[in-house]
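lol so apparently i was supposed to do this last week
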Amino acid sequence: MTNYRAFYVQDNGDGTFQQSIAQRNIDDLPQHDLLIKVHYSSLNFKDAMSAHGNKAVTREFPHQGGIDAAGVVEHSGSDDFKPGDEVIVTGYDLGMNTAGGLGQYIRVPASWALHCPAGLSPQHSMRFGTAGLTAQLCINKLEQMGVTPDQGPVLVTGATGGVGSIALTLLANAGYEVVASSGKAEQADFLKALGASDVIDRSELSEPNKRPMLKERFAGAVDVVGGDTLANVIKSLKAGGSVSCCGLVQSPVFDASVLPFILRGVNLLGVDSVEIPLSVKQAAWEQLAHCAELASIVQLNTEIALEQVPEALGKLFNGELSGHTTVNVSA
Ligand SMILES: NC(=O)c1ccc[n+]([C@@H]2O[C@H](COP(=O)([O-])OP(=O)(O)OC[C@H]3O[C@@H](n4cnc5c(N)ncnc54)[C@H](OP(=O)(O)O)[C@@H]3O)[C@@H](O)[C@H]2O)c1
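anyway here it is w/ NAP bound
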């Protein structure tokens, strides 16, 4: 019987949810191939949705949260892994309805886990987490559609958030001129330090606009916001431009016409980091491994302990955090 500590959410039964750091036991974990000792996790908007009782993310409580985990295999029932291997697990059902990486132990199917790429320790991998994986996938889709740095500015919405700040950093590092859209005017210097050439207020794009097309401004975009923002981004793409759509912090619903698609040939690209094949995740993690030591990646990350998770998730839920938060689960 091994006890461990975990971020734990309980349903109070009155529409409210109790978050705490609780003692758990590995015998209570689901029966899967890999027992992993988690060293690091990171915080995502989806973790905040789960912790606030969003049933589209987590149906059953009590629940051990955390959609990201990186650590070391302690027991393996799979030929692909042996005790001592350093692994990353993100997405699939981790932290949704399967006990997640904000606990010191998880047990998951081997088909969810990948070996840490060379040069990317568990700690370094969680400087990216699902946010970084998603940012990389968004950029890959833009580039698959032919977006290149010489075509003009690329927009990143929700730029101070986890996906946004990492996308901005990766794009700037790859030579793109990046325009950051943010609701936090006081974070303009932070965004410029990450590589933004210009910072615009999110209100420029977030209001409904009846015009079917707007001035051509962006060769590409990474959008985490959805809603009217996404509609306006589509209308503001240059001819042949593309937007990677991965988030819904403003709204999952948007109102659009076909005109930008049929008159400017723009592309709306859906990005999923959760259910895609492990081989696609592995390839993106190999790309991220080359950027783990970038000064701006280190700069945009804040490391916290498990005890600080409830407060930090509350701030993330309210859009008050800037950058990406890693969690030292073993501390
Ligand atoms: N498709 C996938 O696989 C995938 C993977 C990861 C995340 N996501 C989604 O991507 C989105 C961002 O995730 P995240 O973890 O980066 O979240 P996050 O760290 O909370 O960042 C979201 C950012 O969006 C901006 N924002 C917040 N509320 C807003 C509003 N009402 N209207 C406009 N902007 C608002 C804020 O940035 P500013 O203050 O700078 O504007 C905030 O920091 C979420 O919807 C998440 O579910 C999807």
